[in-house]
Design brief:
The structure is a single chain. The radius of gyration is 25 Å and the shape is globular. It folds into 3 domains: 10-166, Rossmann fold; 172-345, Winged helix-like DNA-binding domain superfamily/Winged helix DNA-binding domain (Arc Repressor Mutant, subunit A, Orthogonal Bundle); 356-453, Trna Endonuclease, Chain: A, domain 1 (3-Layer(aba) Sandwich), CATH 3.40.1350. Strands 2-3-4-1-5 form a 5-stranded parallel β-sheet. It has helices at residues 10-21, 38-46, 61-76, 86-96, 108-113, 117-128, 143-151, 172-178, 184-194, 198-201, 209-217, 223-235, 239-250, 256-263, 267-279, 304-312, 317-321, 326-355, 397-411, 435-440, 448-453, and strands at 26-31, 51-55, 102-106, 135-140, 163-166, 283-286, 298-301, 362-368, 371-379, 384-395, 422-432, 444-446. The chain has 454 residues and is of the alpha/beta class. Helix 19 (397-411) links the parallel strand 10 and strand 11 (422-432).
């Protein structure tokens, strides 16, 4: 495993530091899907502060309470106490502490999974800690559980937190900091497999990427080979149903009826499953950028790692498990480059949002009947609209001009301020020959050379 220094998370650290400097009690809830680096963030935050840090394990609550007792003893330099509840622990902490202590309970979802301790934390937040110079941080990875039992309006803790952070995967641009010597094309391959999940990125050096993909995903002894299956089994009831749904979406079944048919479900029952997968950050509901009705839409994979795994691994899971990887690897070699096109669209959107070639407020895919445009960006105030095609390929000047001409034709079907809008047209490719000529002609054109400079 290739361990790396702490990357990005500047906004999250700034938020936590601001809360830390506030007078009095602060109650922060940190959530996000597994492996996104919540524990690393919190350890980075408290490393220069007085703190008690409890990492809960998936055991009985009494075991985690014992660990908390031990951490308290170590912090105060006393023999391990034997408090019988978390309330007793916090009573002792507020009476003895004089330094403005930060208490972190990481993987809180394990603590509340099989107990009613969450009600006890209501008492701690309401009666023990207010008016005290204590910062309490609860962090959890089981996103659906954290949303329902900690953040939900029926939760005993509802409305009591003074701040919340939902940890997202790293952005593509952060991979350039993680792998400073890796070619941009290889960074895209890594991002297509690992997304921006720090734990997964640690398995890659960025030197021989396809070899590392084979060793880390198509190897039955590797960590990443079983990871999606284990996450679904650990966090969800009916994991086999979610498995079917994710496989359906990864294969291109994006409408509710299509997903239901593939998953052996009635269409009316699919929405609840999709909502939970959305909370976990695995899928997203997508509407055409100009669709005001919001009643229709399609479902797509949001997480690159799960999309890659369900596209190239899940169908061959039994074979790979017995070291018969030829079929899966052949499928990968044949289709990985075309699969990268979908990842490149996500990267292109991130690139445009950060670069802002013109001032826009909204960006997304557009489609109507048989016509589709990869990215459309809008500014309602200035009535500016930009149309972009995204191509994961090397394009010669003549071909680029043909694509832009077709884009102009398709743009006529986009019904938005047709009489008064200012139009921009653009192309984002792997490499554009004659890009400078296209820019001089007024087009917004970018390729990997521009992304490398950012």
């Amino acid at each position: 495993m290739y361990r790396k220094e702490f990357i990005d998370r500047r906004k999250e650290l700034e938020f936590l530091d601001k809360k830390y400097k506030e007078k009095g009690f602060e109650f922060i809830i940190v959530s996000g899907r597994r492996r996104t680096g919540k524990s690393r963030l919190l350890k980075e935050f408290v490393k220069d502060k007085a703190n008690i840090f409890l990492l809960c394990e998936e055991r009985k609550w009494q075991y985690n309470l014992s660990k908390f007792n031990k951490a308290i003893g170590e912090y105060f330099g006393i023999p391990k106490p034997n408090f019988n509840s978390f309330s007793e622990c916090f009573d002792f902490i507020v009476k003895e502490d004089r330094k403005g202590l930060t208490v972190v309970i990481d993987e809180f979802s394990y603590l509340i999974k099989k107990s009613d301790i969450i009600a006890e934390f209501q008492t701690i937040a309401d009666k023990i800690l207010p008016e005290k110079e204590v910062k309490l941080i609860l962090s959890g990875s089981a996103v659906s559980m954290m949303k329902k039992r900690v953040l939900g309006y029926k939760s005993p803790l509802y409305g009591r937190s003074t701040g919340q952070i939902f940890i997202q995967p790293l952005r593509f641009r952060d991979l350039r900091e993680w792998f400073p010597k890796t070619k941009i094309e290889d960074l895209i391959k890594i991002f297509a497999v690992c997304d921006g999940i720090p734990k997964y990125l640690e398995f890659f050096s960025g030197i021989n990427v396809e070899k590392e993909i084979k060793e880390n995903v198509f190897n039955p002894e590797s960590f990443l080979f079983r990871e999606p299956k284990l996450i679904l089994e650990e966090e969800l009831r009916e994991p086999e149903t979610y498995f079917q749904i994710l496989e359906a979406i990864s294969m291109g079944y994006t409408k509710v009826v299509e997903i239901a048919n593939y998953s052996f479900l009635e269409a009316k029952n699919v929405a609840a499953y999709l909502s939970i997968l959305g909370d976990m950050g695995l899928v997203k509901r997508e509407h055409s950028v100009l669709d005001k009705r919001r009643t229709r839409g399609v479902y797509r994979m949001k997480d690159n790692f799960f999309e890659f795994w369900f596209r190239f691994v899940s169908r061959y899971f039994s074979e790979i498990e017995t070291w018969e990887i030829e079929g899966a690897w052949s499928d990968f070699k044949r289709d990985f480059n075309s699969y990268l096109g979908f990842t490149f669209e996500k990267i292109a959107m991130e690139f445009l949002v950060e670069r802002k070639p013109f001032r826009f407020h909204k960006i997304g895919r557009w489609w109507h009947r048989e016509k589709e445009i990869d990215l459309v960006a809008l500014n309602e105030e200035t009535k500016e609209i930009a149309f972009f095609e995204v191509k994961w390929s090397d394009l010669k000047l003549e071909e680029a001009r043909r694509i832009l001409a077709e884009l102009k034709d398709k743009s006529e079907s986009v019904n938005w301020n047709n009489e008064s809008r200012m139009e921009h047209f653009g192309l984002i490719g792997k490499r554009l020959e004659g890009k400078e000529d296209l820019v001089e002609e007024g087009y917004l054109c970018y390729d990997l050379r521009d992304m490398r400079k950012e």
